[in-house]
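Supplementary Methods, section 5.1.

A reviewer requested that the exact input to the structure prediction be made available. We therefore reproduce it here, unchanged from the version used in the analyses.
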Amino acid sequence: MTPLAPSSGLASYLCEVDGNADVLAGVEVEVPGDGVFEMPQRVFFWSPACLGSAEAYERAALQAISFLQGLYGFVVRDYNYDCVVVYRNYGKDAVAVAASAVRYAAYLERILACTRSSAADPSRRVFHAPARPPANLVLLYSSLLAYVSFI
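The structure derived from this sequence is encoded cell-by-cell as follows.
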C-alpha cells in the first residue's frame, strides 16, 4: 500500500482517537462508483494502534487489500512466502538426492572394500567384484563423497 498511496492518490493513512481514547490507525481507499453518475465511495479500515503504528497500519492495509480482492476478484500473492515454499521443496529434493547418494556411496564403499580384501586374501572373496576397481569408479566414489559432504 505504501508505494501505491502517493502515486494513485486513492489510498491514504489516517490516525484517529476514538471515544474511549484509544488510538486507531487507518487506511482510506477511494472506490469508484458502480454506475455512470455515481460518486466514488471512500471506505475506511481501522486497527487499534496499541502495539505500534507500523503494525496497526499493516493490519489495516491487509483489511483494505482483502476488501479490494473481494470487490475486484484479484489475488495478491505473498512472494516471500512463495520463496520459502520453493526453498523448502528444494531442501526436500536435496535431502532425497543426498540420501540416494549416501546409499550409492555405501554400495561403492562395499565394492571397494571387497575388492581390497579379495586382493589381499583371495580365499575370502565374498563379493564378486573385479580384482581392481576401474579408475572411473574410484573417481565417481570420491566425487559422490565430496558432493554428499557439501550438501
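Residues 3-10 have pLDDT under 50 and may be disordered. These observations are discussed further in the main text.
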